[in-house]
Amino acid sequence: MKKIVPLILLLAVISPILPLFGQQNSDPAASIINHYAARNFVPGAMNKADLDLIVQAGIRAPSASNRQPWHFTVVQDQNLAKQLVSNITDGNVLIVVSASGDGKTNGSQILDCALAVESIYLAAQALGYGSRIYTGPMNTLNSRYKADLGLPGGYSAVALVRVGKVQPGVDAVSAASGRKGADSLVTYK
Questions:
Q1: Residue 55's Cα: distance from chain center in Å?
Q2: 3-class DSSP state of 98
Q3: For residues 25 and 124, is the Cβ–Cβ distance under 8 A?
Q4: What's the rounded mean pLDDT across residues 19-29?
Q5: Cα–Cα distance between 23 and 59 in angstroms, integer?
Q6: Is the pTM of this model over 0.85?
Q7: Which residue spans within the chain are E strands per DSSP?
Q8: How far apart are the first and last CA of the chain?
Q9: Which residues contact residue 40 at a Cβ distance below 8 angstroms, ignoring those fewer than 6 apart?
Q10: Rounded to whole angstroms, how far apart are CA atoms 101 and 16?
Q11: Is the dihedral of CA 187, 6, 122, 113 positive or negative?
Q12: What is the pLDDT of residues 75-101, one digit of tens each?
């Protein structure tokens, strides 16, 4: 029972988006457990239908009182993308998630956006793409690129997700850094 609780919580987070995947995601638990933050993207354009599905996963994320405070900006312009993430690979897409406020003190909106970011991140990997979450560039993005990105007035970026093609056969074991064990992260009482 103790080992099942974290899995149930993770499934609760992504359950709103599971119907979007049809047969493509036959084992959602494996997609969650085997995810990794991609580092080695390869050039190549994403399929438009897959990109739309990934964005829908963010839109369908849970939020407090179903407020859905987010706005998604899909950056396909490679020149703009390179200004935000310097090592961008041709064909990568950035999905900027923003909410009203300064992106630092609007706590519940940041949490809601984090759920949307995770849904985007996991959906991309469930569809066979690499994904990586960035929060480091947010200060620069918010001070220099809001207008270029067309963020709504009063909104600030909370995070962005890089999505793109990766080398086939790369997985969480061969691509990711080591993970802490559950014994050092979880306390059961």
A1: 9
A2: strand
A3: no
A4: 53
A5: 20
A6: no
A7: 70-75, 93-100, 130-134, 155-164
A8: 13
A9: 130, 166, 167, 170, 175
A10: 26
A11: negative
A12: 999 999 999 999 999 999 999 999 998
Place of tokens 């469930």: 126
- The token pair at 165 is 């093609």
CB 160 within 8 A of CB 92: no
Question: Model confidence at 180, in pLDDT bands (50, 70, 90)?
Answer: confident
Task: State the Rg of the chain over Cα.
Answer: 17
| Res. 170 pLDDT band, cuts 50 70 90 | low
Give how far Cα 136 sits from Cα of 95, 124, 186, Å. Answer: 14, 21, 27
Does the CA dihedral 35-39-40-46 come out positive or negative?
Answer: positive
17 pLDDT exceeds 50?
no
- Mean pLDDT confidence for 115-133: 94
CB atoms within 10 A of CB 187: 5
Maximum average pLDDT range among 37-41, 71-75, 97-101: 71-75
Structure tokens at 185: 């992260």
Sketch the domain layout of the chain as residue ranges.
Answer: 4-167
Structural fold of domain 4-167: NADH Oxidase (3.40.109)
Q: What does the mean pLDDT of the chain come to?
A: 84
* Best CA proximity match to 131, nearest among 158, 162, 159, 166: 162
